[in-house]
Amino acid sequence: MSVKKKHIDKYELPTGRFWFTFIALSFVGLGVLWRIVAIQTIEHDHWTERGVEFEHSIRTIVPARGQIQARDGSLLATSIPVYDLRWDSKSEAINKEHFSEKRDSICLRFAEILGGTPEK
Question: What is the rounded CA–CA span in Å between residue 118 and residue 107?
């Protein structure tokens, strides 16, 4: 019993630094919570309109212009475009049966787009 009492006697109450940190983090948490509520209620119409803009975005990519050549005509630098090709396999527009039937032609077209050869 004396061991437990000794342990309790050594326990110290939290200091002012602890309370300052607790209050500061509580304000940060309340600020984050307020922004979540504000975005979902007050600014809902604004963010819904912005979301529609990003739903489907088809843009023409303007190619990089030319190459840099030395006076003698040798090539010093050229622009090589890099593109990301992304696939949304969970899209509702993809018909699984149609995809299975046309898999060969899809692969041939992808090979043509990516500059490869349609080999197995």
Answer: 7
Q: What tens digit of pLDDT does each residue of 19-50 get?
A: 899 999 999 999 999 999 999 999 999 988 88
* Secondary element (H or E) of residue 40: helix 16-40
The backbone region for 75, taken as left when phi is positive above 0, alpha when psi lies in -120 to 50, beta otherwise, is: beta
User: pTM value?
Assistant: 0.37
- For 70, residues 6+ apart whose C-beta sits below 8 A from its C-beta are 76
Other Cβ atoms within 10 Å of 107 Cβ, number? 13
Instruction: Please provide the DSSP assignment of 60-97 as one string.
Output: PPPPPP-EEE-TTS-EEEE----------TT-TT--HH
Euclidean distance between CA atoms 21 and 15, whole angstroms: 10
The one-character DSSP state at 49 is H
Q: Which residues make beta-bridge pairs with 77?
A: 68
- Is 33 in a helix, a strand, or coil? helix
Asked if residues 67 and 79 have their Cβ atoms less than 8 Å apart, the reply is yes
